[in-house]
Design a protein that fits this description.
Elements lengths: L3 E9 L3 H10 L6 E6 L8 E2 L2 E2 L3 E10 L3 H11 L8 E8 L6 H4 L3
Antiparallel strand pairs: 1-5, 1-6, 2-5, 3-4
Helix pairs in contact: 1-2
């Protein structure tokens, strides 16, 4: 059985820290926030006829598989992901992890 999962959360610009805080409140040990650009149906806005480049923040958190559901639910709730255009979050199984030995003692 796999022990680790990667939660990937893509949210509007300015919401990355909120997503990270929500994941940590729900049991994650930390995460990484990256800047990205979206191209979804809700990002096709214009200002004075010029297309707006929709910036996104991407939060990556490697978590214990047993905690992934609760962490995902915390992110959805705190980041309002049930609203259209608010973002998306999903869980990907991880085959192996190096560099987080401090977490092994907590399992």
């Amino acid at each position: 059985m796999k022990k680790w999962a990667l939660i990937i959360t893509v949210v509007r610009k300015g919401w990355g820290d909120k997503a990270l805080e929500a994941s940590m409140k729900a049991g994650a040990e930390g995460g990484t926030v990256l800047i990205g650009r979206g191209t979804g149906v809700h990002e096709q806005q214009k200002l004075l006829g010029i297309p707006i480049e929709p910036e996104k923040e991407i939060v990556l958190s490697v978590v214990h598989l047993g905690k992934s559901k609760a962490i995902l639910e915390g992110i959805v709730q705190d980041c309002e992901l049930e609203k259209p255009g608010a973002g998306i979050a999903f869980v990907v199984p991880v085959e192996g992890v190096v560099g987080i030995s401090h977490l092994l003692d907590k399992i």
